[in-house]
Amino acid sequence: MTSVLLTGIASLVTNDPSHGDGKPGDIGELRDAALVIEGKRFAWVGPRRDAPPADSAVDLGGRAVIPGFVDSHSHLVFAGDRAEEFAARMTGVPYSAGGIRTTVAATRQATDEELTANVARLVAEMRRQGTTTVEIKSGYGLTVADEARGLALARAFTDETTYLGAHVVPPEYADDPASYVELVTGPMLEAAAPHAKWVDVFVERGAFDADQARAILTAGRAKGLVPRVHANQLGDGPGVQLACEVGAAAADHCTHLSDADVDALASSGVVAGLLPAVEFSTRSPYPDARRLLDAGVTVSLASDCNPGSCYSSSMPLCIALAVREMRMTPAEAIWSATAGGAASLRREDIGRIAVGFQADLAVLDAPSYLHLAYRPGVPLVAQTWVGGRPV
Ligand code: NIG
Ligand code: FE
């Protein structure tokens, strides 16, 4: 196995508690650091003066290095866009889940090649911005064949695929949602499960209620899929409590929370996924990250990239918004966008720069991770490495 030594790292965010104070959320920053990659994994991490020899060396010239972003929530399998809907929203039309049906119609019409090209384009866009792992949901097909093909196409880009047949009730079932839930828990699940790791439900007025969602998540689990939930996005609701009840990996959005919701997240260990680029793009109030962090909840940050509520694939944007608008510290935001995403996806091999972890990282054209929040909108990611190689 060949090895490469990276030196000239002014600031290295490791997320390794052994380099910090050992508290949860500590980013374990090392100054004037170096690291060695052997094959696909980190083999050594420490101060530059102690660096061992390697087959080759790269001097990063005083840049910062952070773990690659783990984007734990996206909807990339779709056709078309909804730029007009966005423009109308900016004049005061409120966001509603109804727009999802516009994308469903376009997605059903699209060829496999068109859908694959769209996913490839967006994954490439994410890579350029430092994302090394991405979760991709279905949810714009909403027929047995279209959900299965969306997941099969997404699987070529990531192992983190999520069956979201329960995104909304499609128009052909508008008068009979119970039959749609039977489809989602029956033949559609059967066709989707071989291509998915996760099952998700949009729990919201106008989408699915707690009983429908419980049935879908339970059926998914019986097929080996692990639950995650779109919870409490547009208003108060039962999503967070349901996520905690079924032991979901994540409750994402968490924009409208009661005290009981925060307590349930803290005691269950369900990761609260915050998606601030959605609030930015829908001009909605941001979730209260401070309240969650102070209660001891594990928080992840993700893009939610989709053509409706948020057509941004940028984790650096999420970090800037989390710091500026949600009172997260820059260190908390970096942790949530990397190790927090790994926790959301229940991955113990990514999200840290530590011996044995997958060698996924981003090199910043900046002396410190602080610049991600300090210089919003500036393309600071100079290189992205996945599995030990620049991509
Ligand atoms: O996570 N909330 C539901 N789904 C997406 C939005 C999808 C759309 O508007 O097309 C979300 O925000
Ligand atoms: Fe979403």
From TrEMBL:
Signal sequence interval, chain numbering: none
Subcellular location: Cytoplasm
GO MF, any single term: imidazolonepropionase activity
Residues engaged in binding 4-imidazolone-5-propanoate: R82, Y140, H167, Q233, S309
Binding site for Fe(3+): H73, H75, H230, D304
Name the UniProt record assigns to this protein: Imidazolonepropionase
Family: Belongs to the metallo-dependent hydrolases superfamily. HutI family.
EC number: 3.5.2.7
Record InterPro entries: Amidohydro-rel, HutI, Metal-dep_hydrolase_composite, Metal_Hydrolase
Pfam family, one: Amidohydro_1
Cited function: Catalyzes the hydrolytic cleavage of the carbon-nitrogen bond in imidazolone-5-propanoate to yield N-formimidoyl-L-glutamate. It is the third step in the universal histidine degradation pathway.
Major place of residence: cytoplasm
Annotated binding of Zn(2+), by residue: H73, H75, H230, D304
Keyword annotations: Cytoplasm, Histidine metabolism, Hydrolase, Iron, Metal-binding, Zinc
Keyword Hydrolase: yes
Cofactor note: Binds 1 zinc or iron ion per subunit.
Entry binding sites for N-formimidoyl-L-glutamate: Y140, N306, G308
